[in-house]
Amino acid sequence: MLVLSLYRQLVIEQQNQVDKHLAAEMQRYQQLALTVNRRSFAAQIRAADPKTALIAWRNSVDMVGALTFLPENMPQLPETKDFPIFTGGPDKLHILTGGLVITRYGPVLIATRTDQLAALIEKFINAAFWAVAFTLGLTLALGYIFSKAILRRLVEYNRLSEQIEAGHYETRLPVSESQDEFDMLARQFNLVLDTLEQNLRAVRGVTDNIAHDLRTPLSHLRIGIEQLSQKPTAELADATAELLEELDHCLGTFDAMLSLTRIEEGQQMLDLQPVSLQQICQDLFEMAEVIAESHDQVLSISLEDDVHVNGDKYLLFQALFNLVDNAIKYSPNGATINIIQHGKHIQISDNGPGIIDEDKERVFDRLVRLDPSRHYKGTGLGLSMVKAILSRHKATISLHDNNPGLLVSIHFK
């Protein structure tokens, strides 16, 4: 399209130049015929330079000018017509463009040579053809090289994806330094693989923890059931109660997991209402104070700048109570536990053993228990439940060192 546009502009420009030149010569000889006599007019035509314009005039006797006869059917300027002439020079055939101008001495032929313009246009067409051919060839070559590079990366991605499909989840797509669209895709795909691998590890960890936590009570249940027939009638009730307690612990673990899933997936509807953070902290203090006193611990509370949040009062209380209960459970006798509320910020701190930095994020995973001996009874789902409830209420939770002990920080948006 660019070449065609340039060609069109060249032809139009050359035609305009010819038209302007012929119009100027027409005006000149019209004025000349008005100002000189017939003899001077003929002399001017004989003296005309053929390189500037070809002039021919037939007087009453013969032809005057550059031609021996006038071509037939020549139009009047500004209409033009192409016609050939033969010369004795090296270029025997010339193509001219011209027309007649009517003067008081009769019609005068005014023409200009245009075959040179045709040669120029032909050279332009040849140059444009080779330029287009070169550009097309270069484009095809570069396109082939570029497509081979893209195809090579796609083949590599396909090979690696087959490895991932075969179960090699540690495989990652290569990322080059060019940072192009393929690298963006590879980086995003690698992030998906990282998340997938973490989830698979979490599933394996949950499976191991379930097997570890439930194997002991289920074994106790089986042994206890086998021994029921051997128990005296007086001991049967106590043995049955112990078996029911073990069974309740197993069922409680599964119920907690189902409840956690419903909260995380948004399947459990929230009973939303304005909740006073000061009031919920006060209720929390009143319920947990007795438990702390039974462990010879001190529970204190500090309340400032009450705010209301839109949430489920029961679930929020459950989450906060779980945190305070953990602080009481894992802190030694004589420990001090603080509940601090300031606006939308709640802190629960203790001076117990605390949690090392490597475990501060891991404790929120399902069935993770930092007590390898399982000295304290539990499901390992408490902090997972806390985080799920707070996330549903658009609140954040973070763990920090209290030096000594643990500081739990909760912020409502």
Describe this structure in words.
The structure is a single chain. The chain has 413 residues and is an alpha+beta fold. Helices cover 54% and strands 19% of the residues. The chain has a 5-stranded antiparallel β-sheet with strand order 2-1-5-4-3. Strand 4 and strand 5 form a beta hairpin. The two termini are 60 Å apart.
Short summary of the structure?
Residues 148-201 form the HAMP domain. With 413 residues, the protein is α+β, with helices and mostly antiparallel strands. 54% of the residues lie in helices and 19% in strands.
List the helices and strands and how they pair.
Blueprint: H1 2-35, H2 38-46, E1 54-58, E2 63-65, E3 81-86, E4 93-103, E5 106-113, H3 115-165, H4 181-228, H5 233-264, E6 272-276, H6 277-294, E7 298-304, E8 308-312, H7 313-330, E9 336-342, E10 345-350, H8 382-392, E11 395-401, E12 406-412
Parallel strand pairs: 7-9
Antiparallel strand pairs: 1-2, 1-5, 3-4, 4-5, 6-8, 9-10, 10-12, 11-12
Organism: Shewanella frigidimarina (strain NCIMB 400)
GO molecular function, one term: phosphorelay sensor kinase activity
Domain HAMP: 148-201
